[in-house]
From TrEMBL:
InterPro entries reported for this sequence: Gfo/Idh/MocA-like_OxRdtase_N, Gfo/Idh/MocA_oxidoreduct, NAD(P)-bd_dom_sf
Protein name: Gfo/Idh/MocA family oxidoreductase
Domain Gfo/Idh/MocA-like oxidoreductase N-terminal: 36-98
MF-aspect GO terms: nucleotide binding
Recorded coiled-coil stretches: none
Domain of life according to the entry: Bacteria
Family annotation (Pfam families): GFO_IDH_MocA (PF01408)
Organism: Actinospica acidithermotolerans
TM spans (from-to): none
Length: 139
């Protein structure tokens, strides 16, 4: 199999995530938000701020490039619907990520579960507080 060439849109706060895509012989980052043209990529990470996801996601889907976009997909239902429609129309893969699963504390939790240290897990409930409120009740 040929090495997968990956582009990154949004080289700010979350761009370090794209570094995990580089695997010698399997995948390498070939393009980023630099204005210099660097050729076609096979896949792209869209790591821009949430309100800027839509335009690059639609651009790449409509050109047949697979897209990984950080959650949330977009900040409006209309933009999410447009992304899903573009993926369906073009047959291009669209992935929506939630990278907190890679946090050390969550990896440790998984390790404890897998090792049987806490017994058989039958149910999990997760409440996540982040950003400007999340589930947090402001007082």
């Amino acid at each position: 199999m040929d090495e997968l060439r990956v582009g990154v849109v949004g080289v700010g706060q979350r761009a370090v995530l794209a570094g995990h895509a580089s695997r010698p012989g399997l995948a390498r980052v070939v393009s980023d938000a630099d204005p210099a043209e660097r050729g076609r990529c096979d896949a792209v990470f869209v790591l821009t701020p949430d309100y800027l996801h839509t335009e690059p996601v639609l651009h790449f889907l409509n050109t047949g490039v697979a897209v990984f976009v950080e959650k949330p997909m977009a900040i409006s239902l209309e933009d999410c619907d447009a992304m899903l429609a573009a993926a369906k129309t073009t047959g291009t893969r669209l992935y929506v990520g939630h990278n907190l699963r890679h946090l050390p504390v969550l990896r440790k939790m998984r390790e404890l579960i897998d090792s049987g240290a806490i017994g058989r897990v039958r149910s999990i409930w997760c409440r996540h507080f982040i950003g400007h409120g999340g589930d947090l009740l402001l007082q």
